[in-house]
Amino acid sequence: xxxxxxxxxxxxxxxxxxxxxxDKKKKxxxxxxxxxxxxxxxxxxxxxxxxxxxxxxxxxxxxxxxVASRFNVRMSAAKDFLEQLEESGVVQLxxxxxxxxxxxxxx
Length: 107
Known about the structure:
- The chain is mostly helical.
- 49% of the residues lie in helices and 10% in strands.
- The chain has a domain at 51-105: Winged helix-like DNA-binding domain superfamily/Winged helix DNA-binding domain (Arc Repressor Mutant, subunit A).
- It has a two-stranded antiparallel ribbon with strand order 1-2.
- A hairpin with a 4-residue loop joins strand 1 and strand 2.
């Protein structure tokens, strides 16, 4: 019936050689290895640290995403961190909904 015919040994060798050459070219084109990702921290940074507060004051707008990416923490930890900063009076809530809250540093 139908179906693909079985290749001869010589034909199988040619197919395998082509695959090997393509794999070599792909490895050469790959370039430098990608940057290794660090696992995200679960705990937020220290609220009382002057270094962290100095970095926050440089940022014009604070969102959970910007804080999470800057300090390499999870989004939930960044949200909690911003809420703690608001309670202590370091940042001020500008706008927000149930999805996202936008803060600005207090002068």
